[in-house]
Here is the input.
Amino acid sequence: MPKFYKGICECCGKKYRGRGKYYCSNRCAAKIENKKKSKKISNSMKGRAVRGKGWNHTEEWKKKASQRMKENNPLNNPETIKKIKKSLKKRWDLIGRKSKRIRNTDCLLWRSLVFERDKFIC
Here is the structure.
């Protein structure tokens, strides 16, 4: 059998009788616990820079980063270009086959009949 507590809620100050040891409801418990957690987090973050703010790159850094990107560009590698062209060719072949199938008059007629039957709803 569950234990019932009597007391005054620490959040809202109401008298209660229930399963909660310190709070009358889950709502009151969540309010207080969330405040405690957020205060703990804010104390731990004091003195730290906010992510993304206050980070200005110097012109020297920007030039070095640009140079790194130019040197490590995968499109300068002929093997990478071959792989990309091969994968695109496969995609274009699939699209071409699909478009030929749709252009077929029998297929078009069948599609339109099915759409009419279903009242143009998928």
Remarks:
- Strands lie at 5-8, 15-18.
